[in-house]
Amino acid sequence: MARPRSKIIAEAIFGVINSILLVPVCVSFTAIIFRDPFFAGHMPMLIKMVMFSCLTHQAMFTWRSSLPFAVGQVQDAGLIFLSAVASDVVAKCQKRGASDEETISTVMATLSLGTFLLGLALVGLGKLELASAVQYLPMPVVGGYLAFIGFFCGQAGLAMMSEVELLGLGDWAKLLEPRAALLAAPGLILGVGLYVLVRKARHMLALPAFLLAVVVAFYAALAIAGCSLEDARAFGWVAPRTVIGPCYQGSVLR
């Protein structure tokens, strides 16, 4: 039986909205996973790799999932481990004198292999009907882990905005430096505004409209202040200019 045209249009609109929301999520996940200073000059390529990973994840979820209404995108639960593994592999490769290409290739292969093995383990748990074993985990363990995910992502966001390295609570004093505070303040204000918006507004366009308005307001403020895009880059408001190749050039694996 054919679906009504109005339902198809509504589903297409929801798909576009979710795509708009997930683009900054993918970029932020990339910044968190590859937060080691070594990756700073390779971010465009890494962003494309993460976006391709998210696209593959969603495609498989759409194809094989028994939940037709669900959006199967990458979650933040594994960012802690992915970031730790990436930084550890970089440290070991640099210690051995590996080149940038060899280091990034090793990082990507290690992360891909680890994720693949985790997927096999989860499929095995499902096939053996052992998922109920999770209920034996103490609630403080589960709650503490979820709380640390929020702390980890929040700290990574502050570090990304303020351009300072935050590895623990002892580094948070760096946020009081004038330049770091000035760079982080707008993000904190917008974060609070976004939190209030998603709790108060129930319209499906509220969140994407807010994100679009933030971008428009930022460049409008630059124009009013008489600042160029290069001035914004120099101060840290915009990511530095890097060489970006074609979309299909996302891998350095040999």
From N to C, what is the helix and strand string?
HHHHHHHH
Question: Which parts are unreliable, with pLDDT below 50 for 5 consecutive residues or more?
Answer: none
Please state roughly what percent of the residues sit in beta strands, choosing from under 5%, 5-15%, 15-25%, 25-35%, 35-45% or over 45%. under 5%
Total helical segments = 8
Mean pLDDT: 82
The strand count comes to: 0
Helix content: 55-70%
Q: Can you characterise this structure?
A:
The chain has 254 residues and is an all-alpha fold. Helix content is 67%, strand content 0%. The N and C termini lie far apart (49 Å).
List strands and helices in order, with pairings:
Blueprint: H1 5-33, H2 43-64, H3 79-95, H4 100-127, H5 139-162, H6 178-200, H7 206-225, H8 229-235
Give a brief description.
This protein has 254 residues and is mainly α. It contains eight helices and no strands.
Keywords:
globular; mainly alpha; 254 residues; single chain
